[in-house]
Structure prediction request, 143 residues.
Amino acid sequence: MLIQPYTSDWKANFEQLKRELENGLSGITICIEHVGSTSIPNLDSKPIIDIDIIYNVASDFEPIKSKLEKIGYYHNGNQGIEERDVFKRNGTSINPILDTITHHLYVCPKTSIALERHILFRDFLRKNDWARLEYQDLKYKIA
Prediction:
Protein backbone atom coordinates (compact mmCIF):
# COMPACT_ATOMS: atom_id res chain seq x y z
CA MET A 1 0.00 0.00 0.00
CA LEU A 2 1.38 3.35 -0.98
CA ILE A 3 1.68 6.50 1.04
CA GLN A 4 -0.89 9.10 0.05
CA PRO A 5 -1.01 12.87 0.58
CA TYR A 6 -2.76 13.93 3.76
CA THR A 7 -6.51 14.43 3.50
CA SER A 8 -8.99 15.73 6.06
CA ASP A 9 -11.15 12.76 4.99
CA TRP A 10 -9.11 10.69 7.45
CA LYS A 11 -10.43 12.72 10.39
CA ALA A 12 -13.99 12.35 9.04
CA ASN A 13 -13.44 8.61 8.56
CA PHE A 14 -12.28 8.29 12.15
CA GLU A 15 -15.36 10.14 13.40
CA GLN A 16 -17.62 7.76 11.45
CA LEU A 17 -15.81 4.71 12.83
CA LYS A 18 -15.89 6.16 16.35
CA ARG A 19 -19.67 6.63 16.22
CA GLU A 20 -20.20 3.04 15.08
CA LEU A 21 -17.89 1.69 17.77
CA GLU A 22 -19.49 3.82 20.50
CA ASN A 23 -22.91 2.53 19.45
CA GLY A 24 -21.66 -1.06 19.54
CA LEU A 25 -20.01 -0.58 22.91
CA SER A 26 -22.80 1.34 24.60
CA GLY A 27 -23.04 0.80 28.33
CA ILE A 28 -19.28 0.40 28.82
CA THR A 29 -17.09 3.33 29.91
CA ILE A 30 -14.48 3.76 27.19
CA CYS A 31 -12.52 6.43 25.39
CA ILE A 32 -11.75 6.14 21.66
CA GLU A 33 -8.61 7.79 20.28
CA HIS A 34 -7.47 8.36 16.71
CA VAL A 35 -3.78 7.44 16.69
CA GLY A 36 -1.20 6.66 14.02
CA SER A 37 -0.18 8.70 11.01
CA THR A 38 -3.67 9.52 9.76
CA SER A 39 -4.34 11.34 13.05
CA ILE A 40 -1.60 13.89 12.36
CA PRO A 41 -2.67 16.83 10.18
CA ASN A 42 -0.56 17.36 7.06
CA LEU A 43 1.30 14.05 7.40
CA ASP A 44 1.23 11.88 4.29
CA SER A 45 0.36 8.32 5.20
CA LYS A 46 -1.01 4.95 4.28
CA PRO A 47 -4.79 5.42 4.29
CA ILE A 48 -5.43 3.22 7.33
CA ILE A 49 -7.17 4.66 10.38
CA ASP A 50 -5.57 3.45 13.64
CA ILE A 51 -7.94 3.40 16.59
CA ASP A 52 -7.32 2.75 20.27
CA ILE A 53 -10.28 1.86 22.47
CA ILE A 54 -9.28 2.62 26.04
CA TYR A 55 -10.87 1.09 29.13
CA ASN A 56 -10.37 1.94 32.81
CA VAL A 57 -10.98 -1.34 34.65
CA ALA A 58 -9.54 -4.75 33.75
CA SER A 59 -12.96 -6.37 34.14
CA ASP A 60 -14.22 -4.25 31.21
CA PHE A 61 -12.10 -6.13 28.67
CA GLU A 62 -14.37 -9.17 28.36
CA PRO A 63 -17.57 -7.10 27.84
CA ILE A 64 -15.73 -5.01 25.24
CA LYS A 65 -14.53 -8.17 23.50
CA SER A 66 -18.05 -9.62 23.53
CA LYS A 67 -19.65 -6.48 22.13
CA LEU A 68 -16.99 -6.13 19.44
CA GLU A 69 -17.66 -9.75 18.42
CA LYS A 70 -21.38 -8.92 18.14
CA ILE A 71 -20.63 -6.11 15.67
CA GLY A 72 -18.38 -8.26 13.51
CA TYR A 73 -14.87 -8.32 14.97
CA TYR A 74 -12.74 -11.16 16.23
CA HIS A 75 -10.00 -10.99 18.85
CA ASN A 76 -6.59 -11.54 17.28
CA GLY A 77 -4.54 -11.54 20.49
CA ASN A 78 -1.94 -8.96 21.35
CA GLN A 79 0.39 -9.84 18.45
CA GLY A 80 3.38 -9.64 20.77
CA ILE A 81 2.62 -6.25 22.32
CA GLU A 82 1.49 -6.42 25.93
CA GLU A 83 -1.66 -4.54 26.93
CA ARG A 84 -2.70 -3.86 23.32
CA ASP A 85 -5.22 -6.33 21.96
CA VAL A 86 -5.93 -6.45 18.25
CA PHE A 87 -9.41 -6.84 16.76
CA LYS A 88 -10.14 -7.50 13.09
CA ARG A 89 -13.30 -7.69 11.01
CA ASN A 90 -14.58 -11.26 10.75
CA GLY A 91 -16.63 -10.96 7.56
CA THR A 92 -19.77 -12.41 9.11
CA SER A 93 -21.49 -9.13 9.92
CA ILE A 94 -22.05 -6.38 7.37
CA ASN A 95 -21.69 -2.73 8.34
CA PRO A 96 -21.42 0.02 5.69
CA ILE A 97 -18.95 2.01 7.82
CA LEU A 98 -16.88 -0.65 9.57
CA ASP A 99 -16.50 -2.69 6.38
CA THR A 100 -15.60 0.14 3.99
CA ILE A 101 -13.16 2.32 5.94
CA THR A 102 -9.82 0.57 6.29
CA HIS A 103 -8.77 0.59 9.92
CA HIS A 104 -6.75 -1.12 12.61
CA LEU A 105 -8.52 -1.55 15.93
CA TYR A 106 -6.73 -1.92 19.26
CA VAL A 107 -8.14 -2.25 22.78
CA CYS A 108 -5.90 -1.06 25.62
CA PRO A 109 -6.19 -0.45 29.34
CA LYS A 110 -5.59 3.19 30.28
CA THR A 111 -2.29 2.15 31.91
CA SER A 112 -0.92 0.52 28.72
CA ILE A 113 2.61 1.48 27.69
CA ALA A 114 1.67 0.85 24.05
CA LEU A 115 -1.22 3.30 24.40
CA GLU A 116 1.06 5.87 26.04
CA ARG A 117 3.50 5.54 23.12
CA HIS A 118 0.68 6.00 20.57
CA ILE A 119 -0.54 9.17 22.28
CA LEU A 120 2.92 10.66 22.95
CA PHE A 121 4.05 10.02 19.36
CA ARG A 122 0.85 11.49 17.90
CA ASP A 123 0.89 14.56 20.11
CA PHE A 124 4.60 15.21 19.53
CA LEU A 125 4.21 15.15 15.75
CA ARG A 126 1.10 17.33 15.94
CA LYS A 127 3.05 19.99 17.87
CA ASN A 128 6.39 19.84 16.02
CA ASP A 129 6.34 20.53 12.29
CA TRP A 130 10.04 19.78 11.93
CA ALA A 131 9.54 16.28 13.40
CA ARG A 132 6.45 15.65 11.27
CA LEU A 133 8.38 16.59 8.13
CA GLU A 134 11.37 14.42 9.10
CA TYR A 135 9.06 11.49 9.83
CA GLN A 136 7.24 11.98 6.53
CA ASP A 137 10.56 12.05 4.67
CA LEU A 138 11.60 8.82 6.40
CA LYS A 139 8.27 7.20 5.47
CA TYR A 140 8.82 7.99 1.78
CA LYS A 141 12.41 6.71 1.91
CA ILE A 142 11.27 3.42 3.46
CA ALA A 143 8.37 3.08 1.01
About this structure: The mean pLDDT is 96.
